[in-house]
């Protein structure tokens, strides 16, 4: 898989790109960089279109650092998106976060391999059901919606749908642009899908 865009080096950035880079660096957790200073993951692509990139990074920062979802629900939902889209970089970035916020190893592995995802926590279970439906059908049925609103509140339920859209967008963009894992990162494997998937 050949990367479709050569990474931008810091010295090559124009004013709009530098402003976006400053916003990315101001986040509680600055984005990762390669040894040459270029941005890893979806962030180099954001620099290519800095106006939409600034809006995207704002959504991502709001979801990650100012959202109403618990860390565990947010990271579980993000992993479900990554596994659905077979987004290796997204998985690489978020699986360690999911483990660090206390999601069990077995649950994280079940998401990766496509096994049933049945968290013990009712809020996490409701979120997993809603996210699974949204990813596979493009909608959430009434029973799952009622349950996710009961467990997460209306703001949490709406934020959950925003999160699925945001991380799906990043996954698709990284696929199209052939964004690789960082040098030295372990490969991420997802099982083959059946013809029904």
Describe what you observe in this structure.
The chain contains eight helices and no strands. The chain is 62% helix and 0% strand. With 197 residues, it is mainly α. It has two domains: 13-64, no CATH class; 70-175, AhpD-like (Up-down Bundle), CATH 1.20.1290.10. It has helices at 15-25, 43-48, 50-65, 71-85, 88-100, 105-113, 122-137, 142-177. It is globular and about 50 Å long. The chain starts with 14 loop residues before the first helix and ends in a 20-residue tail after the last helix.
Helix-strand blueprint:
Elements: H1 15-25, H2 43-48, H3 50-65, H4 71-85, H5 88-100, H6 105-113, H7 122-137, H8 142-177
Helix pairs in contact: 1-3, 3-8, 4-5, 4-6, 4-7, 4-8, 7-8
Question: What is the count of structural domains?
Answer: 2
Which topology of the largest domain does CATH recognise? AhpD-like
Task: Report Rg.
Answer: 17 Å
How many DSSP H or I helices? 8
Global shape: globular
Percentage of residues assigned to helices:
55-70%
Structural class: mainly alpha
Task: Spell out the CATH superfamily of the largest domain.
Answer: AhpD-like
Organism: Pseudonocardia alaniniphila
Protein name: Carboxymuconolactone decarboxylase family protein
InterPro entries: AhpD-like, CMD-like
